[in-house]
Design brief:
The protein is mostly helical and 381 residues long. Helices cover 47% and strands 6% of the residues. It has 3 domains: 43 residues; 91 residues, DNA polymerase, domain 1; 172 residues, Intergrase catalytic core (hpI Integrase, Chain A, Orthogonal Bundle), CATH 1.10.443.10. It is built from 14 helices and 6 strands. It has a 3-stranded antiparallel β-sheet with strand order 1-2-3, covered by helices on one side. It has a 3-stranded antiparallel β-sheet with strand order 4-5-6, with no helix packed on it. Strand 2 and strand 3 form a beta hairpin. The protein is elongated, with a radius of gyration of 32 Å.
Length: 381
C-alpha cells in the first residue's frame, strides 16, 4: 500500500518515480494512488484527466507569478484578460469547441476589438501550455482567426485647448489634467503619486519602479510652470492625505471611478460649450493627454531622445516619433514660412539687385529638350 497516515486528516501518497503528495482524506489519497499507478503502467500513452478551463487559467496565472521576471503590470494585464473567459470556466478542456469560443470572442470584438485580440491570444497560450502538459485540447480551437484591430488615431491639444479642457473639470482635478498634458506620465502614476515622490525645491518627480511600466525607477525634471501647478495642488487638495491627487474625500482614484465621476462629465461639458461645429474634445480620453504632452515637447524643440526619456521610453525616441508626435497646423504653417525664407536667401545670393530682369534665370527662355533630356539634333540643309 502506498498510502500512509501522517497525522490527523493527513494521508501521504508515495508512488515512484512521482513526488509524494498529501491529502486530507484517505479516499482522495487512494484515488490519486490509482491514478499514479495507471500513469506509470501506460507511460507515454497515458492521457491526463481533463481539467476545467477555470482550473487551467488559475494554474497558468499562478505559474506566471511564481516564475518571476514579469512586470507587475504584465501580471495584472494577464489577470484582466483571463477574467473575460468566466462563462467557460466550468467547461472541461476536452469539451471546449471552436464554434462557441469563436462566436463569443467575435461578439466581444464588436465593441472592444483591442481587448478581444489580447484575450484570444491569452486563451490560445493557456490551451497550448495545457496541451504540452498532457491535456486533450481540440486542435480546431487554435484555428480561430486573430482579431484584427486598427489602433485609434492619436491626436494632441494645443496649449490654449488644454487649458480650455481643464477649465471644465472640478477644482480637485484641474491641475491633474494640465500636468498630465504637460509632463506625459501614465494615468496610474497620477493616481498613486504621493508627497515623498515630489521634490519641488529641486524640481523633480520621482517615479518608483512599481509604478513604472519598465519596472525601473524614473526621474522627471519639472519646468517652473509644472512646479507652480504642483504647489497649487498641494495647497488645494483635501487635508489629511499624502496623495497629491486624491478624491474629494481623500481616497485614491481608480481608472473607472475617475472616468465615470469626473472625466466623462467634464469632457461632455467641454464638447457642449465648444463653439466649433466639430469639437476637438469629442472622444478625447485620458491617454490622449500623453499624446498632447509629447507633441508639445516636440513643438517646443525638445530633443526627441530627451522627450522620449521624459515619457519613460527607452528606445531613444523611435516610439515617441512614430506614435506620440503630432504636427500642429500652426507648426506646419511656420515651417513652410521657414522654407520660404531659406529658398529666397539662396536665390538672393545667386544674383544681386543690380542685375537686370533679363538676367533673372526665371525669365531666360529654356531650350527645347528631347524625351530623354537630350537637345534635339538640328537639321542640316
Amino acid at each position: 500500500m502506498s498510502v500512509r497516515r501522517r497525522g490527523k486528516r493527513a494521508f501521504q501518497v508515495r508512488v515512484a518515480p512521482f513526488p509524494a503528495k498529501t491529502f486530507p482524506t484517505r479516499e482522495a489519497a487512494e484515488k490519486y494512488e490509482l491514478e499514479l499507478r495507471l500513469r506509470r503502467s501506460q507511460g507515454d500513452r497515458y492521457v491526463e484527466p481533463s481539467r476545467t478551463l477555470g482550473d487551467e487559467l488559475d494554474a497558468w496565472l499562478a505559474r506566471q507569478r511564481a516564475t518571476g521576471g514579469l512586470r507587475v503590470a504584465t501580471v495584472r494585464f494577464n489577470e484582466r484578460s483571463a477574467m473575460v473567459w468566466a462563462p467557460f470556466r466550468g467547461v472541461k478542456l476536452s469539451d471546449l469547441r471552436r464554434a462557441p469560443l469563436e462566436d463569443f470572442i467575435a461578439a466581444r470584438a464588436t465593441d472592444h476589438p483591442r481587448s478581444a485580440r489580447n484575450e484570444l491570444e491569452l486563451l490560445k497560450r493557456v490551451l497550448g501550455d495545457a496541451r504540452g502538459r498532457g491535456q486533450r485540447v481540440d486542435e480546431r480551437v487554435f484555428g480561430i482567426a486573430p482579431i484584427k484591430h486598427r489602433p485609434r488615431k492619436g491626436r494632441a491639444l494645443t496649449v490654449p485647448e488644454l487649458y480650455e479642457l481643464a477649465s471644465w473639470f472640478p477644482e480637485h482635478s484641474k491641475r491633474l489634467v494640465l500636468l498630465a498634458g504637460l509632463v506625459g506620465s501614465r494615468q496610474r502614476v497620477w493616481f498613486e503619486l504621493t508627497d515623498e515622490l515630489l521634490d519641488l525645491d529641486e524640481g523633480t518627480l520621482s517615479i518608483p519602479a512599481f509604478l513604472a511600466k519598465r519596472g525601473k525607477e524614473h526621474r522627471v525634471y519639472l519646468t517652473s510652470l509644472e512646479r507652480q501647478l504642483f504647489r497649487e495642488q498641494l495647497m488645494l487638495r483635501v487635508p489629511g492625505t499624502a496623495l497629491v491627487f486624491p478624491t474629494p474625500n481623500g481616497c485614491q482614484w481608480n481608472c473607472s471611478g475617475f472616468r465615470e465621476r469626473v472625466w466623462a462629465k467634464s469632457v461632455a461639458a467641454a464638447v457642449k460649450n465648444d463653439p466649433r461645429s466639430l469639437s476637438v474634445f469629442e472622444g478625447f480620453n485620458f491617454h490622449l493627454l500623453r499624446h498632447t504632452a509629447g507633441s508639445l515637447m516636440a513643438h517646443a524643440g525638445m530633443d526627441p531622445a530627451v522627450a522620449a526619456e521624459r515619457m519613460e521610453h527607452s528606445d531613444g525616441g523611435a516610439l515617441f516619433l512614430r506614435t506620440y508626435r503630432h504636427l500642429y497646423e500652426e507648426e506646419k504653417r511656420s515651417q513652410a514660412g521657414r522654407l520660404d525664407v531659406f529658398v529666397r536667401r539662396h536665390l538672393d545670393s545667386t544674383w544681386t539687385d543690380e542685375q537686370t530682369e533679363v538676367d533673372n534665370p526665371l525669365n531666360k527662355r529654356m531650350r527645347p529638350m528631347g524625351a530623354a533630356g537630350i537637345e534635339p539634333a538640328t537639321s542640316r540643309v
